[in-house]
Design goal:
Blueprint lengths: L2 E2 H11 L12 E4 L4 E2 L1 E5 L4 H9 L4 E4 L16 H11 L3 E4 L2 H5 L4 H8 L3 E9 L2 E13 L1 H12 L5 E3 L6 E10 L4 H6 L4 E5 L3 H10 L2 E4 L2 H5 L1 H13 L4 E4 L10
Parallel strand pairs: 4-5, 4-13, 5-6, 10-11, 11-12
Antiparallel strand pairs: 1-3, 2-6, 7-8, 8-10, 9-12
Keywords: Hydrolase, Metal-binding
Family: Belongs to the GTP cyclohydrolase I type 2/NIF3 family.
Protein name: GTP cyclohydrolase 1 type 2 homolog
């Protein structure tokens, strides 16, 4: 069965509302056509591989977490990576919708899903950005050694490599979590007295700051802390659009597995 693309857009924006996104973001329509689709391709990022999959399965809609455009595109040139991507989408009448910080912030979004995935309890809000609540603080039902926690995270988030920063290998029960890039909130996590802070995109000097502040900082990777939202989007869309078929891009678009 075919569904109007506008129907799917309206559903997504009734959930991850435009008003939720941060000021620098560009959530919502990236490329939008009128028409119908029988399927949706879900991905964290828009890549040439994702576009190829949509064309191959004749899907007319791609939904991503990260926006295709963050600022104005000044040139669309055939033979360049971005130019070819845009041209293929337009030639094949494929719409692209992205739900980024709006999906981070909304109830049942990225951070709620991460909290659920890690089986945390005693949920409290973590921090604010532009007066919007970001991330959560919670507790595991048991205390983990650092080694045990890393194995648990690898299994739950389907990640092979995790970086850990800090001074001492302490036991961990209370944590702060923030999907995506969370280095700006290391001090906030420390001030809340958590045993560890789980996030992504940690740089070398962020690790140094965690060491100096005496907090365990766990970098599970930007991709792996957020890709869990793709299954959640599928589950929610299926309840309203029961005959819609889906493809979820499970692989990191840019990282080579060596």
């Amino acid at each position: 069965m075919k569904y109007q693309i506008s129907e799917i857009k309206n559903y997504m924006e009734s959930w991850a509302k435009d008003d939720y996104q941060l000021s620098w973001d560009n959530s919502g329509s990236q490329i939008e056509f009128k028409g119908y689709t029988e399927s949706v391709v879900l991905a964290l990022d828009l890549s040439d591989k994702v576009i190829y999959k949509a064309i191959k399965m004749n899907s007319k809609l791609i939904i991503t977490h990260h926006p295709m455009f963050f600022s104005g595109e000044k040139r669309i040139i055939e033979g360049t990576y971005r130019g070819d991507n845009i041209i293929k989408l337009i030639k094949n009448n494929i719409s692209v919708f992205s739900y980024h910080t709006s999906m981070d912030i909304v109830s049942d979004g990225v951070n709620d899903t991460l909290f659920e995935k890690l089986n945390l309890v005693n949920k409290k809000n973590f921090t604010l950005e532009e007066e919007k609540e970001m991330g959560f603080v919670g507790e595991f039902e048991k205390t983990y050694s650092l080694e045990e926690l890393l194995e648990f995270l690898k299994e739950k988030l389907d990640v092979k490599k995790i970086k850990v920063y800090g001074r001492d290998k302490i036991e961990i029960k209370k944590v702060a979590i923030l999907g995506g890039s969370g280095a700006d909130f290391i001090s906030a996590a420390k001030n809340l007295g958590v045993d560890a802070y789980i996030t992504g995109d940690i740089k070398y000097h962020d690790g140094q700051r965690a060491y100096e502040e005496g907090i365990i900082l766990i970098d599970v990777g930007h991709f792996y802390s957020e890709k869990i939202i793709l299954q959640k989007i599928k589950n929610r869309l299926e309840k309203t659009f029961s005959d819609l078929s889906f493809y979820i891009e499970e692989e990191n678009s840019f990282e080579l597995d060596i």
